Task: structure prediction
Amino acid sequence: MLRVFYSLDCVDNVFFVPDSKPMLRNGETGDWIGTFEGHKGAVWSCCLDSNAYRAATGSADFSAKIWDAITGEVLHSFEHKHIVRACAFSEDTNFLLTGGVEKALRIYDLNRLDAPPREVDKSPGSVRTVTWLHSDQTILSSCTDMGGVRLWDVRTGSVVRTLETKSSVTSAEVSQDGRYITTADGFSVKFWDANHFGLVKSYNMPCTVESASLEPKYGFKFVAAGEDMWIRVFDFHTGEEIACNKGHHGPVHCVRFAPVGETYASGSEDGTIRIWQTGSLTNDDSEPVSDNGSTGRVKVAADEVSRKIEGFHIAEEGKVREKEEGEST
Result:
């Protein structure tokens, strides 16, 4: 099964994994920047540090690697005892967090690459997602075989809180302003208070969702996608569906907004990543805004790019439809 992942850094570059060779592309044009060669197994996770100088990957070859994002050179390989499913740079870029089938969370000091990692308490299940919170004082993790998001105190290495969910959490994102944790589990997208950890909102979705992302600038919208291959845009305050993007031909495993919120990306099992325009970011207009400023269907003038670059597509006219009254989902 082809798995595609990506992350957007501060300059909107897209980092994604079509196989064992992660690629870096320009997030605005789709132009190829580089391919990272060195893994011997499928790459399950990838990320860029906040400066986009280094990249990290976690692989089925039982390793996590640090790369020079400018030259593509492998800077270091951290060996594990099983598949590495998730990796994340700390906010200050000094540490790398990994997790996977070993049921272990490890923190590597990137200033001392040969030093042994710090291990927190044993995870109760195979690790699916990891991320940092509270200026690197807290770690979030979820498991593939059980519900809930666990919050770990980095200082003590122990779980201090669990955000309860019925299904396993396949996506966990901390909002850009640090206010919310967005999770996707089963048929549900949930928003949690990132400081007090209470459940703020929970919305039922039309299908099993794999990933969800909150618009970073105003937080008025969020996107969610999963098994039915459509990327839906919702109103954060009401949960009302605003738009539905059609174009993928396989389940969508990852969606994320660009840092400024003007576009969002979707990575699918069909081997493509698509970039979609967000439309109006205000809370007054629900219709997308096209390139010339008029409302209506989203249009991105990048047909040549979408035809030329395998595995990367910019949304074309006709790929986005507005939900019509009474239309079934």
Observations:
- Residues 303-308 form the longest helix (6 residues).
- The CA atoms of residues 255 and 266 lie 4 Å apart.
